[in-house]
Design brief:
Blueprint lengths: L4 H9 L3 H16 L5 H7 L3 H20 L4 H18 L1 H5 L1 H15 L68
Helix pairs in contact: 2-4, 2-7, 4-5, 5-7
Length: 179
Amino acid sequence: MFLSRRAWRTWRRGRPFWGGLVTVLAGAEISVLPLAPLEVMLQQGIAGLPSVLLGLMMIVMGLSAWVAPHYRGLAGVVTVLLAVAALVMSNLGGFLIGTVLGIVGGSMIFAWQPLPAATDPAEPAEPEGYAPPSELPEPSEPVGPTEPTGPVPARTSPPTATTPHDAAPSAPPTSVEHH
């Protein structure tokens, strides 16, 4: 079952694809490093187990971002926490490469937002609550300024300003004396 290029693009844009891919790569890098030859694994002992488990959990978080993009917030936060935990529990987080990839991938998953639904380009998008003028109710009273129906009053001249000597004398400022 091969997908067409358009179907692949639509699927990829409908989920945090690149964040999931970076997270899967980080998990693979963290879990593969401890899977060295048998002699090295025997020397490591149980210390290699957290590396494999943390790496597998990161891979699961990356895949869950693809399969269930509505859980992207949880997957992103858990991925970043696992990457930081791998720094302490797994060979410096896969020699820092896995931790850095995990933090970047988890951040990309958390920050991803779905695109709004595409509309027909022939029809312009209308804002929410918009009603065409044909669907609006007829107003019972006129709205806005109306023309006067009676005679127009004569214009009067503006009041003249008073001069300072016409104004009432102001009281001098008083000071309070302290004894």
